[in-house]
Design goal:
11 helices
C-alpha cells in the first residue's frame, strides 16, 4: 500500500471506533480484549490514575493509547497545549484542567467521527478552554509559535511521514516549547507476515519506527534535549492488542521528549 492508502485505512478504522461500530474493542488492533477488560482498565494499565479517569466526560476515554503523556508534560496554568491525534478528547480534557481558564488546549484529529465525538464531549462539560480542529499531523491547522507543549498518545506511529510530523511540531511550538509524547517504537525487525498485516498497521504495530530513527528525525527538525525512553513494563499491555501474535517481542511503548530551543 502507498501512503494515501495507509492513511485512508487508518482513518476508516478510527472512524468506525468513534461511530461505536467497534466501541467494544479496548485496543486499537483488530482483536477485542478479554472478558471484563474495559477502557478504564486499559487506561489504568497505561498509567492514568483513578482521579484522572474520574475527571473527564464519559465517552472521551476509548482505551486507545500506549502510555500517559500527561506524566511527563509538567503542564502549568496558562499554557497552550496541542494534542496530536486527539481522538475523543481524553488527553485534551485532562490537560485543560491543568492549564486552567487562562490556558488553552487544541486537539487535532483527521477523523471526522472522532472530531464530532470530541466536540460533543466538550459540550457536555461546558469546556471553554478546549477546541478541536480537523487536520492531518503532517499539515497542522495551527499558526507558527503557538504552543508551549505538544502531547500525543500512540498516534505518530500511524503516520507514514513521521519526519514531517516532527517538523510541523517544531513549527507550531513556541521557542522553548516542549514535546511530551507516548508512542510505540520498534525494537526488533518485524516478520513480513506481521509487517504486512493491515490490522497491525492500524493497531500501532507495523508502522512503528526505531528509537534511533525517531531521535534522528527530531534532531533534523531542530529539537534539542531529545530523549526517547522505552518502557519495558508496557510489554503486557501490548501483548493484549493482538493476542497470540507475539507482537510484544517487536515493539515497546516509549516516552518521546524534546525541546525547541529558546529564541
Amino acid at each position: 500500500m502507498d501512503d494515501v492508502q495507509i492513511k485512508e485505512m487508518v482513518r476508516a478504522r478510527y472512524g468506525s471506533i468513534a461511530a461505536a461500530i467497534d466501541a467494544s474493542c479496548c485496543a486499537p488492533a483488530s482483536s477485542c480484549c478479554g472478558p471484563g477488560t474495559t477502557s478504564q482498565d486499559k487506561a489504568r494499565e497505561m498509567g492514568y490514575s483513578d482521579a484522572e479517569l474520574a475527571g473527564v466526560p464519559e465517552g472521551s476515554n476509548l482505551g486507545l493509547g500506549c502510555g500517559n503523556p500527561q506524566a511527563i508534560a509538567a503542564l502549568k496554568p496558562g499554557e497552550v497545549v496541542i494534542d496530536l491525534g486527539s481522538g475523543a478528547g481524553f488527553d485534551c480534557f485532562l490537560a485543560a484542567r491543568q492549564v486552567g481558564d487562562g490556558g488553552h488546549v487544541i486537539g487535532v484529529d483527521m477523523t471526522y467521527e472522532m472530531l464530532k465525538k470530541a466536540r460533543e464531549n466538550a459540550a457536555t462539560i461546558g469546556a471553554q478552554n478546549v477546541e478541536f480542529r480537523l487536520g492531518e499531523l503532517e499539515h497542522l491547522p495551527v499558526a507558527d509559535n503557538t504552543a508551549d507543549v505538544i502531547l500525543s498518545n500512540c498516534v505518530i506511529n500511524l503516520v507514514p511521514d513521521k519526519a514531517q510530523v516532527y517538523r510541523e511540531a517544531f513549527r507550531v511550538l513556541k521557542h522553548g516549547g516542549r514535546l511530551a509524547i507516548s508512542d510505540v517504537v520498534n525494537k526488533a525487525p518485524l516478520p513480513a507476515k506481521l509487517k504486512e498485516d493491515p490490522a497491525l498497521l492500524c493497531g500501532c504495530i507495523a508502522g512503528a519506527a526505531t528509537v534511533q530513527e525517531n531521535e534522528a528525525w527530531l534532531a533534523e527538525a531542530g529539537f534539542v534535549d531529545i530523549r526517547v525512553t522505552p518502557k519495558s513494563e508496557s510489554r503486557e499491555l501490548i501483548a493484549t492488542w493482538a493476542p497470540g501474535c507475539g507482537i510484544e517481542e517487536y515493539v515497546v511503548s516509549a516516552m518521546v521528549e524534546g525541546r525547541k530551543p529558546a529564541a
